[in-house]
Amino acid sequence: MKIAVLAPFAFPVREPYAGGQERHTAQLVRGMAARGHSVTLLARPGSDAPEGVRLLPITGGYAAALRQLRAGGFDIVHNNSLDYLPVLTAWRMNCPVVTTLHTPPYRALRLAARVGRWSDRLHFVTVSAFMQRLWAPYTGRSTIIYNGIDPQAWPFSPQGEPRRAVWSGRISPEKGTEYAIAAASQAGYALDLAGPIHDQAYFAREVSPYLNDRIRYHGSLSGTELARLMGGAGVGLFTSVWDEPFGLVIPEMLACGTPVAGFGSGAATELLYEGVGQLVEKRDVTALVTAMNAAARLQRRHCRAHSERNFHLETMISGYEELYRRILNRR
Hints:
alpha/beta; Rossmann fold; 2 domains; glycosyltransferase activity
């Protein structure tokens, strides 16, 4: 198949990834190219194309990207952005458009989905059952395809350091970094923080004043560096306080063997069971402290097995590949 993938334009698609959506985009194009498909990535300048992927840097925004897509002679377009324009104008494409919904319904995108859903060229994917329920009033039917990770990129660590926790994500209010700091401090755990700072004022107010020799911020790390940090911890913390669409950090931590304690935000309840993690109500730091101690006693090999069984990258790639084929076979 001749596949075009439209990336989100907020950040370049390159390591260290700005977020889960950029990582998902890179994994998708790399996986499709490895299966012999012709793949073109339309992305912000400064992006890196995996081996076998043609990179098309876009400087004129989504309108310019859509012009390139209409003229590209593709079999299928995968819209991996959060912008409303590719959804609203999917009917003008010369081929089917698959849109993965990585975010809860916000006004512009849900309005575009209400209009675009009537085009037989537009097909929606949601990344969790939670997201499917949120989007159903606007998209109608959608296909659930869980995000996946490459287990080889997240090596299993049979033992983490006792009373050491790890937290990873973009540092912004919706990710709840301050709750990880508060819980680790109350529980007497050391804490390693990693991820890009998306809200400098939030970092200065809620994170920076609490950094010391026990609570450390490591910056934005490569996948290899992050896996090493995760594998070295006795427990991973997940503190999102918004409607988390998926929570890719959970399978990543589990793959390293690190059990997870966190808030039951959005799709998190789909990703964990009591054998590999503990979830509590959002913003309940006291309950999170109890959950940390309980999770740290769980079997690390069970965490690895759960991640491999349910969130393998090849399962995700196969899901999209099969969806593309079904769509094209119906034409």
